[in-house]
Design brief:
679 residues; alpha+beta; binds guanosine-5'-triphosphate; binds magnesium ion
């Protein structure tokens, strides 16, 4: 029976599934989300991305651009379970939005394009999910497309992502003639008819029986190899029952040793109901995942009766007020109740609690462990803030955010709008922690930084639209770093101030050297004989960290450096932590100047696809952009080229690739860190 999720707030925790939809850009996440909502009776018409009518791509820019930019939540009910979904963006510039969503999910559907298989960003989000220990099932989408091939996609999952694929369906028909699947667990044929809702469930047609039996056998053998109970049954009975298989597949999903693979076509509405069954059967509920742990190591069970703890993963200012999206991990909150914002240390009142359906919200009175809701009334909470019971504080680990690598100067076209622009930018940064705003100390310009060209373009456009501002945007620039090319040893620095009053005395001796980890900073002390007491050593380290902010080459942050404090001296009266911190800062600044520094620039891995006749031209262009070709593969008249290219050379690449390939080329990028820049 179809039920309204909002009227069914009291499903037991074991029947809740919090899951994300993850994939490379354009794999079909939003379309799939749309179909999941439709199949569960949550919506009554099927929206399309290209018409701008989907539930989760509701932002005007998402509708205009046809891509997902912001993670959006929606929920539906299936077979007595409440499924809370988060549709995530696939474009790499919004990877931080995915990171924040992953932090609060218990499971995920990884979507793959049935033609392309595993694409670069699917690999990246897969690794992100690995890092968060989020169990997944795979959905190979777009089987209706010309060239779609489930087996090839499965092989690319095995080769590039490494879990053992556990394929539980056999497609019936191919490409335009793809009409259904054989369910290899139940050995039934499931079919979908054009233009009709629901599905047929019939015996496997004779023509497919042999192939279906072969694949079922293969699945049994693979599962038996990985799962002791399945192995036992397989040895005793020389087959594995559907019930044992289901239990084994659930276990393997949770451990990540295997990944259940289903297939279908979201666009054609095929394969959706079996996917919902698989979500319920294999993905964990909030009580199946390990309890959350505070930074102090204390654990909290997913239990409505224990003290409240929740993590904020998104903040959004809307016309109706400031919405704070939270995942409740433990306890219960009531409308009108109070919570402690662990970030500010202030107790705040929960004005309202909303169950979120993309851009529509339904007020509810309570939210319990396992829920994902939005709350109104919190003033300062940001993505990453912990909310907890004032009587029982706990701080959860916040999601990490990547460092901005691209920046643009922004200014209002009308000088009178300066204040409004600054407050619009402040609001953007508050909602998206991977954006940063600063004033350039040399030019006085306001500089907005983010993760990529598109990220900044979207941010500026949002400020334009939401605040009706006319904004001029400068050329994008990349963020450089500085590192040590040649260190110094035994660098002596004396910080002495002794005119009147309390003086300052700190004497330090430093070595500097390059670190293999080009992103890191290491500090150690080899001082002997108590020449520098421990608390002053710490102060020197702090001072060195202060100095890392601006390197000698161009004021860029310094990375890839090890500093060793080898000796020093104190003064009985005039030494202090402050004096040693200052000495550490000035000593390192001078030591870096005395050695040799190198400039580093951000580099990205580019994966470009081009029709065979344009490959030469695309390669030539990449070379002109200081690209280093890593490899290329050709399949069905299309060549996929991978190369590393300095980010600074990639501005405007989309337009160039389009013109060199008559609009048929596509590309994606993935940041890979920093590399030496030409001087
Ligand atoms: N042929 C075919 N096209 C599909 C299918 N699923 C999605 N598409 C189309 O693929 C395009 C991208 O779909 P989206 O649902 O926006 O993909 P997405 O993964 O949400 O993309 P981003 O959010 O931008 O990363 C749209 O034009 C869809 O209509 C499918 O099963 N078959
Ligand atoms: Mg999308």
């Amino acid at each position: 029976m179809r039920t309204d999720p909002h009227r069914n707030p009291t499903v037991p925790l074991t029947a809740v599934r919090n899951l994300g939809i993850l994939a490379h850009v354009d794999a079909g996440k939003t379309t799939l989300t749309e179909r999941l909502l439709y199949a569960t009776g949550t919506t009554h018409k099927r929206g399309e991305v290209h018409d701008g009518t989907t539930v989760t791509d509701f932002d005007p820019q998402e509708r205009d651009r046809g891509i997902t930019i912001f993670a959006a939540a929606a929920s539906c009910t299936w077979d007595g379970h409440r499924i809370n979904l988060i549709d995530t963006p696939g474009h790499v510039d919004f990877a931080d939005e995915v990171e924040r969503a992953l932090r609060v999910l218990d499971g995920a559907i990884a979507v793959f394009d049935g033609v392309a298989g595993v694409e670069p960003q699917s690999e990246s989000v897969w690794r992100q999910a690995d890092r968060h220990g989020v169990p997944r099932i795979a959905f190979v989408n777009k089987l209706d497309r010309t060239g779609a091939d489930l087996d090839a996609a499965v092989e690319s999952i095995r080769a590039r992502l490494h879990p053992v694929p556990l394929v539980v369906q056999l497609p019936i028909g191919a490409e335009d003639g793809f009409t259904g699947v054989v369910d290899l667990l139940r050995m039934r044929s499931v079919g979908w008819a054009e233009g009709r809702d629901g599905f047929s469930d019939e015996p496997v047609p004779d023509a497919l029986l042999e192939e279906a039996r072969r694949r079922r056998r293969l699945l049994e053998e693979t599962v038996a190899e990985l799962h002791p109970a399945a192995l036992e049954e397989f040895c005793a009975e020389s087959t594995v029952s559907a019930a044992t298989m289901r239990a084994a597949l659930r276990d393997l999903t949770r451990t990540g040793d295997g990944v259940v693979v289903l297939c279908g076509s979201a666009y054609r509405n095929r394969g959706i109901e079996p996917l919902l069954d698989a979500v319920v059967a294999y993905l964990p509920s909030p009580v199946d995942v390990p309890p959350v742990r505070g930074l102090d190591g204390r654990e909290r069970q997913a239990d409505p009766a224990v003290p409240f703890a929740a993590l904020v993963f998104k903040v959004n200012s809307t016309a109706t007020g400031r919405l704070t999206y939270v995942r409740v991990y433990s306890g219960t909150i009531h409308k009108g109740g109070t919570v402690l914002d662990a970030g500010t240390g202030r107790v705040e009142r929960i004005g309202r609690i909303l169950r979120v359906q993309a851009d529509r919200h339904t007020p509810v009175d309570v939210a319990v462990a396992g829920d994902i809701v939005a709350v109104v009334g919190l003033k300062a909470a940001r993505a990453g803030t912990t909310l907890c019971a004032p009587t029982d504080p706990l701080v959860l680990e916040p999601p990490t955010s990547a460092d901005p690598v691209v920046s643009v100067a922004v200014e209002p076209r009308a000088a009178a709008d300066t204040e409004r622009l600054l407050s619009a930018l402040a609001q953007l940064v508050e909602q998206d922690p991977s954006l940063a705003v600063r004033t350039d100390s040399e030019t006085g310009q306001t500089v907005l930084s983010g993760l990529g060209e598109l990220h900044l373009e979207v941010a500026v456009e949002k400020a334009r639209r939401d605040h009706r501002l006319d904004i001029a945007v400068g050329r994008p620039r990349v963020a450089y770093r500085e590192t040590v090319a040649r260190g110094v040893s035994g660098f002596v620095y004396r910080h002495v101030k002794q005119e009147g009053g309390a003086g300052q005395f700190a004497h330090v001796v430093l070595d500097t050297e390059a670190l293999d980890d080009t992103a890191g900073f290491e500090f150690r002390s080899t001082v002997t004989g108590g020449h520098v007491p421990q608390e002053y050593v710490r102060a020197v380290e702090q001072g060195c960290r202060d100095a890392l902010v601006e390197g000698p080459l161009g004021g860029h942050p310094v990375v890839g450096l090890r500093v060793t404090l080898t000796d020093g001296a104190t003064h009985a009266k005039d030494s202090s932590e402050m004096a040693f911190r200052t000495a550490g800062r000035l000593a390192l600044r001078e030591a870096l100047r005395a050695g040799e520094m190198a400039l580093l620039e951000p580099v990205a891995e580019v994966t470009a696809t081009a029709p065979d006749n344009a490959v030469g031209s695309v390669l030539g262009d990449l070379a002109a952009r200081r690209g280093r070709i890593l490899g290329s593969t050709t399949r069905a008249g299309t060549t996929v080229i991978t190369a590393t290219v300095p980010l600074a050379e990639l501005f405007g690449y989309a337009t160039r690739l389009r013109s060199r390939t008559q609009g048929r080329g596509t590309f994606t990028t993935r940041p890979t860190g920093y590399a030496p820049a030409p001087s």
